[in-house]
Structure formats: structure tokens, C-alpha cells
Amino acid sequence: MNTQNIVIALLALVLIGGGAYWFLNSQGDIVTDPNGMMPVEPDGGIGDGAQPLDELIGEGEQVNTLTYTSETVMGSSVRGTDIIAYHFGNGGDELLLIGGSHGSDAPNTSELAEKFITYLAANETVIPANMRVTVIPRVNPDGLATDGTAGRFNTNMVDLNRNFDCDWARTSMWRQQEVSGGTAAFSEPEAKAIRDYVSEINAVGAIVWFASEGKVYPSACGGNPSAAATDLAATFGSAAGYGVEQEFDAYTINGDMVNWMAKQGVPAISVLLTDREGIEWAKNEAGFKAALNLLSN
Question: How far is Cα 96 from Cα 100, in angstroms, rounded to an integer?
Fold first, then answer.
């Protein structure tokens, strides 16, 4: 082997050894992106030779991001299950959509409220700038998890729609059956959660779903419904195709949530779905949009 070939071989060995040394020592400095797309510095920066994100997506393009619904844990049930409010829009005037007061006895009211959560997450632009819509789908989560008629009540066997401070009584009626209104108004944690939340916001209206009659009623406590509640009931009912009545008189109801809201100055309506199974989405979407338009003006 001549001198020139020996020199070339030695230089090659030096270069190979140096490259291997650099590679082995560099592994502690660079980690792999979880998706395997680019080297990432341990502190989260982009590694040497990787393209910045704006170069990767191209000039003038935007990265799609998920829009998450904000939530408030309002309180908890007797069994400790969270009662959650889901918020859409950023305005100061709040419209409440409430379902699930009677648990598994009217599960479609929770299903309808949950449908509104999905709908509003995909269509938040329907909410005017001055409004916020809050959906509370499961006022009575313990009852929703209980089979049969007993699911109408909470774990203390109280009808939560008899536990509010409007004409409250220990015993009230459901059809021809006596039901418990609790030991006092707001004796139940689920009712307290609604009370405390409403006291903290500027509620300009509330739509509360029950079953089953296919009618809409405005709220009132100790008198006639307010003009605002009457207008809200008429607007929702007309758009949804439900009948509208001024007063529910099939049997006496003490401690009603919607009537308590009237006592707080909140225009509220009871929407009684036609049965205990269907959510009647098209009807209630139309009613909601009409109500939202009324309250935002």
C-alpha cells in the first residue's frame, strides 16, 4: 500500500470515529416528537434543522384548534355526583336550558339538553354577542341512574321540583300521589346548586324541560305570570308547535323550580315534552332559536 492510500485510510477512520462520538453524545440533548415528526429540544423548542411551525403549514395558513366548552361544577347530588353547567357564548345576559329534574322518569329531558350541548358546540355562532347560553342537563343525576318510578326522586326520595322556595310544603302532589318536598325549601343539595348558581348570574330567561303533555307554561309565584314570562312562553310555543297555557292546574304543585325563578325576577317557562321518550329535536331547536332572538333584543 503506498503512502497516499495509507493517509486516506487514516483520515477515513478519524472521520468515522468522530461521527460516532458525536452521535452517541447527542442522544441526551435531543428527544423525539411524540408523533415522530421532528426533533424537539428537551425544553420544548424545535431542534436544529427542524422547520418552524409557520413554515411547515405555509404562509397565510392557520392551524385548526379544538373549541372546548367551558364548564362549571355547580354542586353535587346526595351521592356526591357533580352537577355540571355547560356554557356557550361570552355575553353578560344568560339563558338557562335545564333538563333532568325528574331523573329516569323523564330521561328524554336530559337527552334533549345533552343534544343542545352537542349542537351549541358545533354552532356557537348562533348565540348573539350579548348572550351566554348555559345548559344544565342532569339536575338529578342520582335519579337518572335509578330504574323505574323511583328515579323521579333524588336519593332522599324528594321530588326536586317540589323543593324550591315558592309555595313550598313538606308534601305536594304528583298526579294522584303524594310526594315529598323535603324537610325545608332547598333542603336538597341539587336544588341548592340551582339556587346558588342563579343567584350569581344575570339570568334573562330559563327554559326547563319536563314530561309529558306537549305544552308550555309561563312561570309565576303568588300571582299572574309576568309579561316577560308570558311572551317567552308564547314565543317558544309558537315556534315549536306546542300549545301554550297560562297556568298548570291538573294538580297542585308546591315548591316548583320554574315558579321560584319567577320569584327571583327571571322569566322562565316549563316545556312539557309530549312523552317520556322522544326529544322532539326539531320542535325544541325552533323554540330555542325564537326564544334566544326574543331575549337578545
Answer: 13
DSSP string, 222-254: SSSPPHHHHHHHHHHHHHHT-EE-S---SS---
Name the average pLDDT for the chain: 84
Range of the domain at 25: 3-57
**Pair (188, 271) in one structural domain:** yes
What's the number of domains the chain is made of? 2
Question: How confident is the model over 99-127, as pLDDT tens digits?
Answer: 999 999 999 999 999 999 999 999 999 99
Which CATH number characterizes residue 192's domain?
3.40.630.10
* Band (149; pLDDT cuts 50, 70, 90): confident
Q: Which amino acid is at 290?
A: A
| 41 domain residue, yes or no | yes
| DSSP three-state, residue 18 | helix
Can you list the alpha helix ranges (DSSP code H) found in the chain?
A: 3-26, 53-57, 107-122, 141-144, 189-200, 227-240, 257-263, 281-296
SS (H, E, C) 50-87: CCCHHHHHCCCCCCCCCCCCEEEEEEECCCCCEEEEEE
Exposed, middle or buried: residue 129 (CB in 10 Å: 0-12, 13-18, 19+)?
Answer: exposed
Report helix, strand or coil for 157: coil
Residues 105 and 150 reside in one and the same domain:
yes
Question: Which residue's entry shows cell 311572551?
Answer: 231
pLDDT in tens, 250-277: 999 999 999 999 999 999 999 999 999 9
